[in-house]
Amino acid sequence: TVGDCYVAVTGLPDPRKDHAVAMARFARDCMNRMRSLTKAMEVELGPDTGDLSMRVGLHSGPVTAGVLRGDRARFQLFGDTMNTAARMESTGVPRRIQMSEETAELLIAAGKEDWVRRREEVVVAKGKGALMTYWL
């Protein structure tokens, strides 16, 4: 986790050709689970519980990974791929899964074109400029 953000990665330590498909399935499963949990929690916690939501951002590309030593040694990921993935999440909307053009192209190449919908608006992301993004 990074603050209130959860980061997941596929293809580490061993690369996998279907990483985009695997991550898209994971993201969809997380979103579906969140919907069912908030609905179930409304009974005990009240109707505003349904306002809880999450955004998901997907991007595909190379990363540098390793364990940094120090007071809190932990596994970390670095690189432009991580920055772009963070922008996909931060410029998304609640209850939606936004993905980069790179991930969309990988899903289409894997025969999952029906999973990909182009976002109407061009997204302007800090440090990236205008980006064409897609919904899962």
UniProtKB/TrEMBL annotation:
SUPFAM superfamilies: Nucleotide cyclase. InterPro entries: A/G_cyclase (IPR001054), Cyclic_nucleotide_synthase (IPR050401), Nucleotide_cyclase (IPR029787). One of its GO terms (molecular function) is nucleotide binding. The keyword 4Fe-4S does not apply. Coiled coil: none annotated. PROSITE patterns: GUANYLATE_CYCLASE_2 (PS50125). GO terms for cellular component: plasma membrane. This is Guanylate cyclase domain-containing protein. It comes from Entomoneis paludosa.
